[in-house]
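Holo model, adenosine monophosphate. Inputs:
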Amino acid sequence: MLNIVLFGPPGAGKGTQSNLLIEKYNLIHLSTGDILRGEIAAGTQLGLEAKSIMERGDLVPDKVVIGMISSKLDANPNANGFIFDGFPRTAAQAQALDSLLNEKGTSISRMLSLKVDDQELIKRLLNRGKESGRADDKDENIIANRINEYNNKTAPLKDYYSLQDKLSEVEGIGSVQDIANRLNEVIDKL
Ligand code: AMP
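Output:
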């Protein structure tokens, strides 16, 4: 199986690149942000609980997102592999993901971490906010909180995967196709 953690701060291009990778390598895209927004749109209890947390730009509790990923893995037993987008975001999530995959006799193949500077991230997110209407992309204070959460709780996961010899850092600036080519180059060597 090919199991990729597509990593990087909010606005790094994880969603855009995931859509290209799932086509090219026949993978299943698991984005916890997309799943949570789906729950909100469907008006579920989980969505109700997550909504205000997401609108502040804070992280949803580990237990909630780990449960969501666990059921998606169970629902796709014959997958060729997965792209994890926006998950894991904490050490507890990374450990849970390793043990969920281990139970299924597989593991993470590689973490691909997209590097983009803060100024570019803020510009991209504000632009996306105008098009998508996402509340958490419209307000600079909320964007700053999301980048803060990333720096404090999520960025340290690069060390977690580096210790397993699984980290590749990829320049996330340039055209969508340039960045895709850089990602493909790493994956094709696996
Ligand atoms: P994203 O679409 O990945 O930018 O996520 C949007 C928001 O959903 C985040 O700011 C968090 O509030 C929440 N979220 C998504 N994935 C996770 C996760 N793995 N852990 C905690 N919160 C998450």
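The pocket of adenosine monophosphate is lined by residues 10, 32-33, 36, 53-54, 57-60, 65, 86-87, 89, 93, 136, 146 (CB under 6 Å). The chain has nine helices and five strands.
Archived with the compound record.
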